[in-house]
Amino acid sequence: MKKTELKEYLSGSVSELNKKYQELIDQLKKTNLDKSAGKSKDVNIESKLRKNIARIKTIIRQKELAKL
């Protein structure tokens, strides 16, 4: 995830972030299936996806706490 993408997520709404979160989860599941089938060539993509998911979840939580 690039810094420009991260800035976009910081300015986005929680619903947009939830959609992106679901997309990343689906992509991670697909990557796991590809990895188990031996189709995946990029071995680092799984860790990158997990880190991006954590970033999105952190931003969502920050926005939820800011509303309180």
Descriptive notes:
With 68 residues, the chain is an all-alpha fold. The chain starts with a helix and ends with a helix. Helix 2 packs antiparallel against helix 3 (45-67). The relative contact order is 0.16. It contains three helices and no strands. The protein has a single domain (3-67), classed as Helix Hairpins (Orthogonal Bundle). The chain has helices spanning 3-11, 14-37, 45-67. It comes from Candidatus Gottesmanbacteria bacterium RIFCSPHIGHO2_01_FULL_40_15.
**Coarse morphology:** elongated
Mean pLDDT: 90
Low confidence ranges: none
In what range is the share of β-strand residues? under 5%
| E-strand count | 0
CATH topology: Helix Hairpins
Keywords: Ribonucleoprotein, Ribosomal protein
Family: Belongs to the universal ribosomal protein uL29 family.
GO molecular function: structural constituent of ribosome
Pfam families: Ribosomal_L29
Topology:
Layout: H1 3-11, H2 14-37, H3 45-67
Fill in the keyword field for this structure:
mainly alpha; 82% helix; 0% strand
In short:
By secondary structure, this protein is an all-alpha fold. Helix content is 82%, strand content 0%. Keywords: Ribonucleoprotein, Ribosomal protein.
